[in-house]
Amino acid sequence: MLSNPLLEARNLSFSINQNKLFHGLSFELLYGEALHIKGGNGSGKTTLLKILLGITSPRKGHIKWVDNTNTVYLGHKNVLKDYLSVEDNLYLHGINSAKTSTKSILKELNLLNKIDVLVGNLSYGQKKKLALVRVLLNQSEVIVLDEPCVGLDDKTRAYIVDFLNAELSKNKSVIYTSHIPIEINSKKINIDKE
Cα(first)–Cα(last) distance of the chain, in Å? Predict the structure, then answer.
């Protein structure tokens, strides 16, 4: 494991109007580490993820990533087009549904037989699985997930946990929020107001 931080966050603060979500957060993430951001609903977990990804700017503080860090992100919204088929959605995300690796994942997630089904006709859990396919096929150094196990059955949740543990063993890093226990060795940050 490399000892230099992949990510350094110093004195991060964010507020909406006069409501402080969090203040003075500082932490580091090393290669091969996982970071679990915890907190109640509305505490700012998703906002913190967006700050770390550069989508939102902190009110105070700064973030430093190692240059040219590749990241894959899956937020609350699955970023799927309901009016397109499963295969068409994969295509939009640059995923070749004919590749052996893709077929294997689709089979594991019980989606291979849904390849021609319109996404709008899938259940919430099936949509979540489909959105996770691009994470499962990622080649990035960092995986960022916002509530990755919501809506998943026990078998799929175990599959995702095994996948994340395997990625960590390859020296990749994971940042996630979750109210559902995920059995990976993680640093924890609780951003609930004290």
Answer: 34
